[in-house]
Amino acid sequence: MERINSTLLTEFILTGIPYPPQLRTFLFGFFLLIYILTQLGNLLILITVCVDPQLHARPMYIFLGILSIIDMGISSIIVPRLMMNFTLGFKPIPYGGCVAQLYFYHFLGSTQCFLYTLMAYDRYLAICRPLHYPMLMNAKLSTLLVAGAWAAGSMHGALQAILTFHLPYCGPNQVDYFFCDIPAVLRLACADTSVNELVTFVDIGVVVASCFSLILLSYIQIIQAILRIRTADGRRRAFSTCGAHVTMVTVYYVPCAFIYLRPETNSPLDGAAALFPTAITPFLNPLIYTLRNQEVKLALKRMIGDPGTKSEV
């Protein structure tokens, strides 16, 4: 470990998550399996949306395909580096690699927040204003909304990376975390970090609170509209589509709020909570959407050539 002197750090050492040594091989295999299944599951969803004409013509499933790309990206940024924690010896990450990891994690993570909001808005229009839906959520608008989400996410990630790494890092280089994230890296700065902590809290707080509030408002209207549907089959289909989205939002937002929107602590629970948005949620999203969404299940059957599968209208 480098000691405090006038030389700035050129690399960091990620301590990873604590674990019993006898579980090293098991945990390496477990996260390797999680990573492979995450990539395959999200790739399957992406291919299904692209090749099925009934899905790729609908904004909801275009958003789902983009979500799969984001999930594959977040998993690839975090999980392989996490797996290195379960191998022998120290595996330092270069300073530039740490910057890139923090930027891309917050870029993709905030884009995912915006995308969840767009998906909730899409469901609100489809269920609460079905007659106006084709006009209000057309292909051009959905493309612009997705582009806006990517642009806003990129700016958010750049802001967080610039604020974090404009500080000098000249002392200990051991990051007490399994990836380069803002709270863990700021503890190593050789300068006052109070402004950074305040800006991070406000910036992430605004993104999370505004997105979650819009999602909540959308679903209040959606639930009221679903309860007015007269047929049980109509209510079932509406809840099938919306239930998958609500499950994903809950699994994603609760850990993020726990990590970033509370007073600074160095709790072991932070690492456990961070596993959800970085490893568990990308793995669960394809499962949730194939198990809870009837249209995706039908599209998968059509893609593998099930002759008994008919499209739902």
Structural overview:
The protein is mainly α. It has one domain: Up-down Bundle (Rhopdopsin 7-helix transmembrane proteins), CATH 1.20.1070.10. Helices cover 72% and strands 3% of the residues. The protein has helices at residues 24-51, 53-56, 59-84, 95-128, 133-136, 139-165, 182-186, 194-227, 232-260, 268-292, 294-303; strands spanning 11-14, 93-94, 174-175. Helix 1 packs parallel to helix 10 (268-292), helix 4 (95-128) packs antiparallel against helix 6 (139-165) and helix 4 packs parallel to helix 8. The longest helix has 34 residues, at 95-128.
Work out the helicity level: over 70%
**Estimated share of beta-strand residues:** under 5%
Strand order of the largest sheet: 2-1-3
Principal-axis shape equals globular
- What is the name of the CATH topology? Rhopdopsin 7-helix transmembrane proteins
| Cα-based radius of gyration, to the nearest Å | 21 Å
Mean pLDDT: 85
| CATH architecture tag | Up-down Bundle
**Major sheet: size, sense and barrel closure?**
3 strands, mixed
CA-to-CA gap between the ends? 63 Å
